[in-house]
Amino acid sequence: MLDFLLTSDAIMALITLTFLEIILGIDNIVFISIAANKLPEHQRAKATNIGLVLAMVQRVVLLFFVSFLIGLSEPFFTYDTNWLHIALSWQAIILFAGGLFLIYKSTKEIREKVEAPLHDENQVKSKVIKSLSQAITQILIIDFIFSIDSILTAVGMTNGLHPNANYTLVLMVIAVVISIAVMIGFANPIRKFIDRNPSMQILGLAFLILIGFMLITEAAHLSHTEFFGKSVGAIPKGYLYFAIAFSLFVEFLNFKAVKKKV
Known about the structure:
Layout: H1 2-5, H2 8-24, H3 26-36, H4 41-70, E1 77-80, E2 84-88, H5 90-115, H6 119-125, H7 132-158, H8 165-196, H9 199-222, E3 226-227, E4 230-231, H10 237-261
Antiparallel strand pairs: 1-2, 2-3, 3-4
């Protein structure tokens, strides 16, 4: 396993996934902070830390569950005509549904951030919280909602990296633990940086759209889909890493240019 974790593909996947988990976890931090700020001051830090730890536990549990479903790779239904062949498995269905969800959720989030950036925050603020237990319950609900796209992102970034699914599961767990640890230690500085540079979060959501398309094509590939005798191939992960790295480089140049003007 150590040999796999030290390969260039695994290291690139770990760095990229950790970065995406942190960027996409900013909303989670904001909403946890809103819920925690309704408590007396001496309970706020405790509620925030408990919320982030619970987020990590939920994501690890969901990773095991989703990884189990993706392991069901044997086809249970085959459809074959002159122009279409498809062999459906639970693995392909989970990846396809996950890809559609990421595209829908990311597109919706981008639209809301452009048109009504405070919409979700106002909804959380409207919730009545009077005790630590109520705050933690609210945080658990928020964590679960944000865990879904986090887990699907992890699956999209690591699926197919190694024949042994347990190896990629370990890689995903490491990325989740690192990202939550970073958020616990640097929640406020990260949040302030994103507030000053909102394009970073939009960029992270745009990456999710790419990952969503990749999950859909991977589902078609794993179900041996053929259109008019032409099979659907899997998109190499290297293309995704290059697109993300190039986009971040352009954003860095833009950040430096704006900073010089100011």
